[in-house]
Design goal:
By secondary structure, the protein is of the alpha/beta class. The chain has 15 helices and 17 strands. It has helices at 4-20, 24-30, 35-43, 52-60, 65-77, 80-83, 111-128, 188-191, 201-212, 249-262, 286-303, 320-331, 358-370, 394-410, 439-451; strands at residues 148-154, 160-164, 178-181, 217-220, 269-271, 308-314, 340-343, 376-379, 415-421, 454-461, 472-478, 481-487, 493-496, 501-505, 511-513, 519-522, 527-531. The strands form three sheets. The protein has an eight-stranded parallel barrel with strand order 2-3-4-5-6-7-8-9, surrounded by five helices. A seven-stranded antiparallel sheet has the order 1-10-11-12-17-14-15, covered by helices on one side. Strands 13-16 form a two-stranded antiparallel sheet. Helix 1 (4-20) runs parallel beside helix 4 and helix 4 packs antiparallel against helix 5 (65-77). The longest helix has 18 residues, at 111-128. It starts with a helix and ends with a strand.
């Protein structure tokens, strides 16, 4: 029997089918599926493993964007195990176009959730409806992202960053711009296991490794020691660290000062807490977090004036409750004490196109603007459940890893830290510790080479930016020469090269000259166009 969530999905699909007046057979022909498959989805006997079939059926029935968003949420909640029915050849059910699924509850989307889910529907759903880079132009996602043009701004050498998820001291063997230390046994609990007693062995090893690789370091704080907050909840880590603030904030200020003194000139930036708007990471109030931020900022500036103070990171921002904590922190003046703000700007799932995070970036910018905050933004992580997500195939992973950084440039973020380097238990693997680098790592390195020493001028997408439909573009200059980076959202288009293009470079390192007026193939794997 189908779960309630599966029944809700089926009821919504049936509603669209009945409104369209199409039969199961007609719908099957439109979406290139069998009538029995469409019937199973509309009656709740089966739930597809990806959203693409649901989107295809609803689109064929004339569903609006808002309706697609509602369908996506219903599909995401559906119990696949309880609803899926295996087919047996020759045993198709008797299908009547009057069959109606049992309706279930519907939960309305909040404003932020609607923006984020709608982006996933339009981008991820559309892109997955066909094999990568072969998307049907008729069903291509119609996504709009605001174009912008500013005075040229130098891209920070540290922009292409990774979060190291290893305490070995080894570093990436491919070229990136900086490394963030988190989940490296360098939490407060690990560094100060007893009041006034410090253990620098692991952090020394990591900082030495990063400096040997020429990588600037950002150290992320978190994990209150059990001695400093014995009655607060335990964290998700196995080191007995706690989620609450210390009982005495003077312990926190002293700890931060000692670390900054110990690593003066060797650690370039400090992120003052990880995922501070999530109960599993920080269970104190935003008012206390603001005070901790003020104290830590003052301590760092006194101990190492050259270090960058980065406000505690905020994540899961498609959740209205989590987003509200960001607003609280901003309205309480938390960002007044930092040179940069950290958020977990990333796709909801690593299998989703990275561009799905752009609507959320707009909501973050709006919230900060309303609070009177003007600050540089860094993305320092991914979704909280990233370790439980399904693996992404190598080709798609390579495209998405590169476009994570390009989407960050589009959102005008100053640094992007891909999560992560060192682990093989994540959806998009760059390089396990001691293992070979993947295609994704090679492509990230190539992008880092493209961007090194460059300045960004503008980014735009589609007709609103005077570009062909589906084309995404950012414009740069480097050493007196201009270049463009072009890409699509996992579809292939033949597009005339931009005027003045002399050559095209691929992420695999190959390049070829371009004749005036010649077409280039643009896919979900970005290309660089050199301009004369």
């Amino acid at each position: 029997m189908a779960s309630e969530a599966a029944a809700t999905l089926a009821a919504l699909l049936t509603e669209h089918k009945q409104r369209s007046g199409l039969s199961y057979e007609q719908l099957g022909r439109k979406v290139h599926s069998s009538r029995s498959t469409v019937h199973r989805y509309c009656t709740g006997r089966s739930v597809p493993a990806t959203f693409a079939p649901v989107e295809a059926i609803a689109t064929a029935c004339g569903a609006s964007r808002e309706e697609l968003a509602r369908l996506y949420r219903a599909w995401e909640r559906a119990d696949l195990g309880g609803a899926t029915v295996q087919d047996t050849p020759g045993t198709d059910p008797v299908i009547r176009d009057t069959d109606v699924a049992v309706p279930g509850r519907r939960r309305p989307l909040t404003k932020v959730a609607l923006v984020a889910v709608l982006a996933v529907v339009l981008l991820a759903g559309g892109a997955m409806a066909n094999p990568p880079d072969r998307q049907d132009p008729v069903t291509a996602p119609a996504v709009q992202a605001s174009m912008w043009t500013n005075a040229p701004r130098a891209i920070e050498p540290e922009f292409v960053g990774v979060t190291a998820n290893s305490n070995t001291g080894q570093m990436p063997s491919f070229g990136v711009g900086s490394v963030r230390l988190w989940n490296t046994r360098t939490r407060w609990q690990n560094l100060e296991p007893a009041r006034g007693r410090y253990d620098w062995k692991t952090l020394d090893r990591l900082v030495t490794g990063a400096r040997g690789a020429g990588l600037p370091v950002i150290l992320t704080f978190g994990g209150t020691p059990s001695w400093a907050s014995p009655n607060s909840p335990k964290s998700v880590f196995t080191d007995d660290s706690r989620t609450g603030p210390p009982d005495d904030l003077a312990d926190w200020a002293r700890f931060v000062r000692v670390v900054a003194e110990q690593y003066r000139g060797r650690i370039g930036a400090y992120e003052l807490w990880d995922l501070a708007n999530h109960q599993d990471s920080f269970s104190g109030s935003m008012a206390v977090l603001v005070e901790m931020t003020r104290l830590a900022s003052r301590a760092i500036k006194a101990a190492d004036p050259a270090a960058t103070v980065v406000c505690p990171s905020m994540g899961e921002l498609w959740d209205p409750a989590a987003f509200d904590k960001l607003r609280q922190f901003a309205n309480l003046g938390g960002y007044d004490h930092c040179a940069a703000a950290a958020v977990k700007l990333s796709p909801r799932n690593d299998s989703d196109p990275p561009e799905t995070m752009l609507p959320l970036a707009q909501e973050i910018e709006k919230a900060l603007h309303e609070a009177g905050v003007g600050i540089r933004l860094w993305s320092t992580g991914s979704a909280y459940d990233v370790n439980r997500q399904q693996p992404v195939d190598a080709d798609r992973g390579a495209r998405h890893a590169v476009r994570f950084f390009l989407s960050g440039l589009y959102a005008q973020y100053r640094r992007m830290y891909f999560y992560n380097w060192g682990s093989a238990k994540i959806p998009i693997v760059l390089q396990p510790v001691g293992g070979p680098r993947t295609k994704a790592a090679n492509h990230v390195e190539r992008l880092n080479q493209w961007l090194r020493g460059s300045r960004i001028h503008s980014c735009g997408q589609g007709r609103a930016a005077g570009l062909p439909d589906h084309l995404w573009q950012c414009r740069f200059d480097q050493g007196g020469r201009n270049f463009l980076i072009w890409w699509t959202i996992d579809r292939a288009d033949r597009i005339p090269a931009a005027q003045g293009t002399t050559s095209v470079e691929q992420l695999d390192g190959t390049s070829r000259p371009i004749e005036p007026g010649a077409d280039v193939t643009v896919t979900g794997s970005p290309i660089l166009l050199r301009l004369g």
